[in-house]
Specification:
Ankyrin_rpt; single chain; Ankyrin; ANK repeat; 55% helix; mainly alpha; Ankyrin_rpt-contain_sf; 14 helices; Cul2-RING_E3_ligase_SR; 304 residues
Length: 304
């Protein structure tokens, strides 16, 4: 009896290995392997994701159905970046039918701390039809996972141009500026499904203009904070003009052209922004402020 048990275990292992390597389009082979004991939740190995994630990535609904009938976990976490779960993989690969199938069979539409947010992946792919599908099927437009931005802020962070001011016309030839209308359409769609604006009370409507007004309000609020921080730091450093200039640059540099005045009466030497001095400043402050990081990235872009 032990002899047959070992053979069964070995066959199970071999079948699972064959399942990992099987093409998601080969539904009949996968069905046969599962019927003979292959593991439908075979974990990630050698860069190969779990079988259901592979099938979702390829949009093979028939194979997905076969795997689920044999016990595959709809929310298995065993994939590569942006493919950590079946739903995320289907969204990232723009497989709309696979996304609908997974949602209808109970996939976690709001994601988790471990897998991340499906809405955020939809922003990355710039697929407004996918975003609309998720929202129509009940995705929470205000769901904020710990350590992750709200959907509206996540959408803004992915699509808003940090080099050119959103209050001006889009810059011709700028790929990020070209996404402006898409950004506003996505934000409007979130609001139409009950999403809150980025800045509370900025506007009550759900149209494109309301979403655009909300973005402008966020930019202006950002600038006001920068001026306040500059003033507070200036007071702590005897109102030194260089430090005030740098604080203002940290905020406004991400919104438009960067122009840092060089004060003659500063109590400290002006650092070399294009060399070692610049790197020293970035190391000191970069981890403390996302706004500063955006400004430094914009400045580096101009140095190329």
């Amino acid at each position: 009896m032990g002899f047959f048990s070992r053979r069964s275990d070995q066959y199970d292992k071999d079948g699972t290995e064959r399942l990992r390597n099987a093409s998601p389009q080969d539904t009949e082979l996968i069905r046969s392997l599962l019927a003979h004991g292959a593991d439908p939740n075979a974990p990630k190995k050698d860069g190969q994701s779990a079988p259901l994630i592979m099938a979702a990535s390829a949009g093979c609904v028939a194979t997905m159905d076969t795997l689920i009938q044999h016990g595959a976990d709809l929310n298995v976490f065993s994939g590569t970046k942006w493919h950590e779960s079946p739903l995320l993989a289907a969204i990232y690969e723009n497989q709309l039918d696979a996304v609908k199938y997974l949602i209808q069979h109970g996939a976690n539409i709001d994601g988790s701390l471990r897998s991340g947010s499906p809405l955020n992946v939809a922003f990355l792919t710039k697929n407004i039809a996918m975003l609309e599908c998720l929202l129509d099927h009940g995705a929470d437009p205000n769901k904020k996972l710990m350590g992750i931005l709200s959907p509206a802020r996540a959408c803004e962070s992915v699509l808003r141009c940090m080099k050119h001011d959103i209050r001006n016309m889009p810059k011709e030839g700028c790929a990020k500026c070209a996404d402006r209308l898409l950004l506003i359409r996505m934000l409007s769609l979130l609001r139409q499904h009950g999403g809150r604006p980025i800045v509370a009370g900025s506007s009550k409507g759900t149209g494109l203009l309301d979403a655009y007004v909300d973005l402008i309000a966020h930019v202006e609020k950002w600038e006001q904070r920068g001026e306040k921080w500059a003033e507070e730091l200036g007071n702590m450093t005897y109102n030194d003009p260089l430090i005030r200039s740098m604080m203002e640059w940290m905020i406004k540099g991400g919104l438009g052209e960067i122009r840092v005045p060089v004060p003659d009466d500063s109590i400290v030497d002006m650092p070399d922004l294009s060399g070692k001095g610049f790197e020293r400043i970035e190391t000191t402050h970069g981890d403390r402020s996302r706004k500063y990081s955006a400004a430094t990235d914009s400045y580096k872009y101009q140095l190329r």
